[in-house]
Amino acid sequence: MQQPNYEEVWGHAFVATNCPHCDWIYLTVPAQATMVCPHCGQATLEPLTAEDELPYTRPPELLLLPGISRQNMEGALGRFANEVPYPPDDLTSNNLLGRLQLVYLPMWLVDVDVSADWQAEVGYDYEVVSHRESLRDGAWSSQEVKETRIRWELRVGQLERHYANARAAALDEQAILSQRIGEYDSSKAGAFQASALNGSFVRLPNRTPRDAWSDAQPTIQNSAAAECQRAANGQHLRQYRWAPEFARQEWTQLLLPLYTTHYEDDEKARKMVMVNGQTGQLIGSRRASTKKAQHYSIIIGLIGLALALISLLVAAAGFLAPPLFVVGGIGLFVAVLVMVGAIIPLGRAWQFNKQHAQRVPLRLDA
């Protein structure tokens, strides 16, 4: 069975493709459909051909454009690479920049008609004037004191409204992603632009609208409560309860920008780096190269060994010229210090890798 034609909705002749390792499913152009997965970097993408294999798709309505300048991105990735002692040869800012890939993450948007009976306590501010008496310098004085209090009144009513673009998570792993790359300010999103998807991947939802509906309802309820408060001309609201009926749900998508890139460690394993396309929060695995540290340790050790041999020869010459005994002894002492210092590169690399075993989010301006 052939894939649906996405060009009419998405503005591109996309195909659906799947990563067999992390199970992320994307829409992308055919030229990118067999690239290495931009999320996990562990497997080559496999194009899907059966329509029943596709996850839940809805048309895009809103899109949040990336908000990171090229200069800020260069600085962030440069710090990420340069702060690693004895970095792998592949870990350079130029490599990270050259491998940047834009991935758009989905979020559900739902429009819905609501009819509900509601009840709440509405609070109204009012001012109370009192007087405070005080004894000062042997005389009593009176001071006017104004205090704002809240008068609570029960209100009931009916509500019929259309609510647009209530947000809900479209990915099962949304909470994990938010912990890693931070939240997005979706209020800055604009109308969908097909041109913004050029050269990018679009992650498809793996969470059904039915499952996501439970996330959208609290947002809708909060909007309804705020409207009821305004309708009652109150300054406060509490104990809001309603009995809603929902109709005409329409689901679309909001697309959020994520950059990914990678480098290879000593074992040629890909280490992924992710950057929030709006805030610049960056997370990735930083690993020092134990091979490079070992190389430096060997060089330092050989220098120390050579210095020790020279010092022994100088000390042996002390039989002919006694002052050379002192020179040889000092040289031998220095050689021992150098050979002991040979463990520093390996120890530093080991300590760094131990400290960074957990991936810690980094701010772009850190």
What is the average of the pLDDT values? 87
Helix content: 25-40%
Kindly state the number of beta strands: 11
What count of domains describes the coordinates? 3
Could you describe the largest sheet, including whether it forms a barrel? Answer: 11 strands, mixed
Global structural class? alpha+beta
Q: Into which percentage range does the β-strand content fall?
A: 25-35%
| Cα distance spanning the termini | 50 Å
In DSSP terms (H or I, runs of 4 or more residues), the helix count works out at 8
Poorly predicted regions? none
SSE arrangement, N to C: HEEEEHHEEHEEHEEEHHH
Rg to the nearest angstrom? 33 Å
The coarse silhouette is flat
Task: Walk me through what this model shows.
Helix content is 31%, strand content 34%. The protein is an alpha+beta fold. It folds into three domains: 54 residues, no CATH class; 197 residues, no CATH class; 65 residues. Strands 1, 2, 3, 4, 5, 6, 7, 8, 9, 10 and 11 form an eleven-stranded mixed beta sheet that branches. The chain is flat and about 110 Å long. β9 and β10 form a beta hairpin. The longest helix has 27 residues.
Summarize the structure.
The chain is α+β, with helices and mostly antiparallel strands and 366 residues long. It has helices at 7-10, 70-82, 93-98, 174-181, 209-231, 290-316, 323-341, 343-355, and strands at residues 15-18, 25-28, 46-47, 60-63, 101-136, 139-169, 190-191, 201-203, 236-264, 270-276, 282-284.
Quickly list its features.
single chain, 366 residues, alpha+beta, 3 domains, 11-stranded mixed β-sheet, 8 helices, 31% helix, flat
